[in-house]
Design goal:
Blueprint: H1 6-14, E1 19-21, H2 23-30, E2 37-42, H3 51-65, E3 69-74, H4 78-81, H5 96-110, E4 119-123, H6 125-128, H7 133-140, H8 145-148, H9 152-159, H10 166-182, E5 186-190, H11 194-206, E6 213-217, H12 243-251, H13 258-265, H14 270-282, H15 287-303, H16 307-320, E7 330-333, E8 338-340, H17 341-347, H18 354-362, E9 366-368, E10 371-372, E11 379-381, H19 382-385, E12 390-392, E13 396-402
Parallel strand pairs: 2-3, 2-5, 3-4, 5-6, 7-13
Antiparallel strand pairs: 1-6, 8-11, 9-10, 9-12, 12-13
């Protein structure tokens, strides 16, 4: 166990959290001196993770570093139901093959953050699939319909007379039973998960067990600084992004989000982050230098020590001196005397359409060997692009060569 006092541990755990319900109970649990069982349940509904997905994993790792045990539950059984949290309609069901493929990808990425020696990895099909109907009736009798309808998403759908499938009511019940099955001391989740977490606490109490503490974490805004991080919004930093992309995307976040990213996405000690926050607030710390440190730190976490410095050097070469990166891919294209540049950009995979290529050229966003293509400079000679570095936007490069 950690040599830190319960209050010192609580200070570290509180950093970056939205709420701890109830905080006094967590302090009491920490005071027992035994390793706590800290639960996170994840439904493998998507294969690739980004920094937003990693926020609870980072908090779990913090618990592990303090000497506690993490129970990571892969919700293969609950994935068949689909979490209705925040949903205005029933989720489409996944196949078992999709769930298994997503689960394995998730596990591989999660253990880039978690300590395997301090992690219990389980699947909730291990206990939920074995419940008979009598046991299910006994568990569901612990909840009332009125209690389930307190959930905002259910209440809204019910008031708007939108369909709610009966199996969706069972989702918070199933998640609550997960806490009973693993005897959780603490359960983590996003702010949208608080109802489900409290359902677990309620069921444990009704089962005569010491109830879990519910710890919620804020949603992480993406690189646009406004919307939550999501692939569908294009504002994400993926855990499997290249080091250069990871650093470049981090440098694009608004300054106001830097401290939040330090707290939720890095392993920098809490006291040090407090000093960074104070320094930025007083003006003693330079925001650009601080953001560079954030970028290096995040890259080092996922690509190894020293990778952040290399990614920073690439960033400066590309964005400060407008030089091309070292690994520009070559793309074979059909040679013609005159090249229609918008069509070439599409063929190189730099833009999705000719129209977008024309728009980018007219906006000054296309360069050939560092030279900006003038507006409406759509047609160029083959020699102008052959073997040259073609750049579209800030991060997209390709080198066209003649197809053999």
């Amino acid at each position: 166990m950690s040599a830190l006092s319960p209050k010192e541990q609580l200070h570290i755990i509180e950093s970056g959290t939205e709420a701890i319900v109830p905080a006094a109970a967590l302090l009491e649990k920490l005071g027992t001196g035994r390793p706590l069982r800290v639960k996170l349940g994840v439904d493998p509904t998507a294969p690739d993770l980004h920094l937003g997905h990693a926020v609870p994993l980072r908090k779990l790792r913090q618990f592990q570093d303090l000497g506690h045990t993490v129970v990571l539950i892969i919700g293969d059984f609950t994935a068949f139901i689909g979490d209705p949290s925040g949903r205005s309609a029933t989720r489409p069901p996944l196949t078992w093959e999709q769930i298994e493929a997503n689960a394995q990808t998730y596990i591989d990425q999660a253990f880039r953050i978690l300590d395997p020696d301090k992690t219990e990895l389980v699947r909730n099909s291990e206990w939920l699939s074995k419940l008979d109907f009598a046991e299910l009736l006994r568990i569901t009798s612990r909840f009332t319909v009125a209690r389930i309808l307190e959930r905002d998403d259910f209440a809204k759908r019910y008031a708007e007379q939108r369909p709610i499938s009966l199996h969706e009511f069972l989702y918070p019940v199933a998640q609550a039973y997960d806490s009973v099955a693993v005897r959780a001391d603490v359960e983590l989740g996003g702010t949208d998960q608080l109802f489900n977490l409290l359902a677990g606490r309620e069921l444990m109490e009704k089962q005569g067990m010491e109830p879990q503490v519910c710890l919620t974490l804020p949603l992480l805004e993406g690189t646009d600084g406004t919307l939550k991080m999501s692939k569908s919004y294009g504002n994400y930093i993926g855990l499997t992004d290249t080091a250069d992309d990871m650093f470049g995307k981090t440098m694009s976040i608004p300054d106001a989000l830097m401290v939040k990213y330090f707290r939720l996405c890095t392993t920098v000690p809490v006291e040090e982050i407090d000093e960074i926050q104070a320094g930025l607030g007083s003006g003693d710390l330079d925001p650009n230098a601080t953001k560079r440190r954030l970028g290096r730190t995040i890259v080092d976490l996922y690509h190894g020590p020293g990778a952040g410095i290399d990614a920073e050097a690439t960033f400066d070469r590309v964005f400060k001196r407008h030089e091309a990166p070292d690994d520009v891919p070559e793309v074979a294209v059909a040679r013609t005397d005159t090249i229609h540049l918008p069509a070439l950009l599409k063929e190189l995979g730099l833009v999705p359409s000719n129209a977008e290529g024309r728009r980018m050229i007219d906006g000054g966003g296309v360069r050939i060997d560092g030279e900006q293509v003038p507006a409406q400079g759509y047609d160029v000679a083959w020699e102008t692009v052959s073997g040259k570095v073609v750049q579209a936007g800030k991060r997209r490069y390709a080198r066209p060569v003649a197809a053999s």
